[in-house]
Structures are given as C-alpha cells and as structure tokens.
Design brief:
Protein name: PorT protein
Organism: Flavobacterium rivuli WB 3.3-2 = DSM 21788
Order of helices and strands: HEEEEEHEEEEE
Number of domains: 1
Strand content: over 45%
Helix content: 10-25%
Radius of gyration: 21 Å
CATH class: Mainly Beta
Largest sheet: 10 strands, antiparallel
Distance between the termini: 29 Å
Number of strands: 10
CATH architecture: Beta Barrel
CATH topology: Porin
Pfam families: OMP_b-brl_2
Keywords: Signal
Structural class: mainly beta
Length: 238
C-alpha cells in the first residue's frame, strides 16, 4: 500500500506541474480539443503499474496460514472508447499485466524455507468492459468514474501441470477468472492529445485455487477460497 500511495502522490505532483507549467489550467485557459469527446469512437493506449494480492478465506484458524507479499508489476494495453451519451461511455481495455506475489506458508511440517515460500509469477491478458461516467467538463479537465466487469487469462496458472506443491513445488491456479472493477480518473486535454491518469481496483468473483492432490495438504488443505485483489494505476493517451 505504501507503493500505491507513492504513485498517488506522484500523480498529484504531475497535476500540479501541469497546472503551473502550462496553459492547460488557469483562470482563463485555452480550450483544447473542444470536440474530442463528441466522436462516436476513439482509440488510445495505456501504460501503468499494478499491485496484485490474494484474499484467502480459511476453513479453520482464519488468517494464520498464508501471508502474501506483493510486488509492483507493469501494465500495457489498448483502449477502445464508444460514446453512448454525453456523460456515459463504454470502454474496452485489453492489456498485458505482469506481476508477482510471494506466498509464505505456515502449515504443520513446513520447516525448510524452501518449503514455506512459493513465488507466484503471473502474466495476465486482461479483458475489461467498463462504463465510464464523466462529469461536466470544466476548462481542460473532466473527472470520471469507472465500473464494470472483466475476464482474465493467466498464462502462468500451471492449471494443466500434474505436479503440485508437495511433489514438484508447483503452485496451481485456474487459467480463467472473472472480476468486477471500480475506479476513478481525470481527463486532461492538451493541445494535441488527451491524457487520462486513473486508479482502479479489481476484485475476483470466484475461487481461483487448484488444490494439491493430497486432500490434507499443508499448502491448500485449509483454504476455503482464494480470490484476486489488485490495484491498477494507468496512464492513458488518446
């Protein structure tokens, strides 16, 4: 979370720099790209960062079995925007998301450090379909909210691998997952392009864990469900 807060502060610094260093803001700003949002369809791309986590629910002794250490990953993708009404757009944002989560297990019999740690590296293709609710434009600024659903393909899920945590030190997840997403951002209109920084949360809807072949495994036996949680910070250019 500290890393996410740092990114937010960087965004605030970026806005302040734009406000005091250009003519985009000000008392009487020049109106840039005045008819940009009237397009029926427009395209863009995004770059950004992510921080993925897992939410574990347990059958017994909740919250003591698995600890998750998150890392900062990166995102890149495309944006397709369809204007529905003046303040409502439909967006499709397919992208590539790379991340890693380090899981530390504390189950009985796990003594060696190599037995306790699993590095879960994930390369996702993410397919979100979002509704964008925009406020009225003020000068060259237009805040907005995002909400929608997404489907994710995990290339590193190990779903088809026969070995598990016990026989091959392999942590297995389902290849496809479904999520819902909520976020907020701001459109900033420059002379030749629109820049849109945003922050968004993703919340898995279903259990993603594939249990070990041994029912009472120290790694997965006590897990009732494992769902993705994540935060995206994207910088979109139109």
């Amino acid at each position: 979370m500290r890393k996410i807060l740092i990114y937010i502060f960087l965004l605030c610094g970026l806005f302040a720099h734009a406000q005091f260093g250009t003519n985009v803001f000000g008392k009487d700003p020049i109106t840039n790209l005045e008819n940009f949002d009237k397009q029926r369809v427009h395209w863009g791309y995004f770059l950004g960062f992510n921080s993925y986590d897992f939410k574990f629910d347990y059958k017994t002794n909740p919250g003591v079995d698995i600890k998750t250490k998150t890392t900062t990953g990166f995102n890149v993708g495309l944006v397709g925007n369809l204007r529905l009404f003046e303040y409502l757009d439909l967006r499709f944002e397919p992208g590539l998301y790379y991340t890693q989560r380090d899981l530390t297990f504390s189950g009985p019999g796990l003594i060696e450090p190599s037995d306790r740690l699993r590095q879960v590296k994930s390369t996702y293709i993410h397919f979100p379909l979002l509704l964008k609710f925009s406020s009225k434009r003020t000068g060259n600024v237009r805040p907005y909210l995002l909400a929608g659903v997404s489907r994710t393909l995990n290339f590193d899920s190990n779903q088809k691998v026969m070995d598990d945590n016990i026989t091959g030190q392999v942590f297995r997840m389902k290849q496809w997952t479904n999520n819902y997403e909520l976020g907020a951002g701001i459109d900033i209109y420059f002379e030749y392009f629109k820049f849109s920084p945003s922050i968004r949360g993703v919340f898995g809807l279903e259990d993603e864990l594939i249990r070990d072949n041994t029912p009472n495994s120290a790694y997965t036996g006590n897990v009732a469900s494992m769902k993705t949680r994540g935060v995206f910070i994207n910088f979109t250019f139109h």
